[in-house]
Amino acid sequence: MVKPRVTPIIGLFVVCLATLFVWLGKTPSPAPDAFDPYLSPPPTDQPADTEQAGDPVGVNVQGESDASDGSAPDDSQGDPSGAMDGQPDLLPDILPLITGPLELPVEGASGWAAVAMPLYSEADTDSAVVVDLDDGQVFVIIEEQGDWWYVRCDDGESGWVEHVGCLINLPDVLPSIVYDITNAYCALTRSSGYEIPGVTGQKLYDAFSFNPRFQRDEFIVPTLYATSKLLFYAQRLALESGDTLVVYEAYRAHASQQRSVSLLKELIESNEAVDRAINDGPWNLNWFIATTMSNHQRAVAFDASLGKVLSYEVVQFGQEFFLDITEYEEYRMPTAIHELSPLAATLVRPASSSSRDAWRDVPLSDTMTRGAISLQNYFVDAGFTPLASEWWHFNDLSGVEVANEVGIEGSFFVGDIMSVGP
After folding, report:
1. pLDDT tens digits for 248-269?
2. Predicted structure pTM score
3. By CB distance 3.0 to 4.6 Å, which of 32, 123, 327, 347 could disulfide with 160?
């Protein structure tokens, strides 16, 4: 009499077990990590046309979600013809492959003569001069040999230049960095939260173009060649912690600087709150915008923020690999970028901007956030010096010495680029 009751009990147990498996299969994934109060929403004010115009010619792109079993990528992933076996998919895999001094070779990158200089027939100052280059002359770098670049100019002239006095286009050689040159489309500059008429919301200069090196629209971001190598190390440190630098400005022409100085002075004269914030206490106007010569004119300073990497793609470029950050979240900072007032101060009081260590003896402002401190650490560990009055500004003081010796003064606006692919 017992056996007839066992069968339905077993059947009921099997049905319950099957139901449990089905329910588990439909259970939502675990919720993401708790909200980090130091993270702000992703930026939404980038130009609409900054999206990639397509994968670079001859480049194979594989993201984190691509198959890892050796299967061929589909057509949407670019041209697989140049793919290499064992292409890395993850950050820990690719970082050891990027050993510097930059992420990509200088060959094919755009450069500029920062000052008037000779174009020589050989990599020797005793060789014949092909032509004298004007300051701001753009060229494509064909070859590097010691302290020299062999270059081709936009007028077809070719020869050798000493690269100590040259600038290089950062996106061409450090493509993993996020570039958002807001002054090239909509300046965010304010003072004590007030708009600066003629500056805030305006396009201050041209710095955006189609870049043939990657077959996409990209910002133009010149900096002194030696300084670009320091920035490589700062970005490397950030990537190792899952972060990325967000560069808002590098080189800035002197004429653009002086126009902003003039308009800010007008605001100070008409707005008592702005005047009081800048001129009362230990600070003055020069701490927030250089009234004569800025290190941006010398092409050895960066305005930057920090983002947490959310997604990326590993891109093959010739025989090299680089990271393309496809999504990031900017950390909460003391103020919005380019807030020209003591609200954005890194330190509680001024410290000499020409000293590598004076800032270390002054306490940090109590408004400095975790993200701002991490940003500072990455730059300082790479050899830069922070500015006491602006959490986003970092100077290459070794580069300042070189720029002063060469005579770089920001005398030109950047025009076209000549970048080429591998």
Report:
1. 999 999 999 999 999 999 999 9
2. 0.80
3. 123
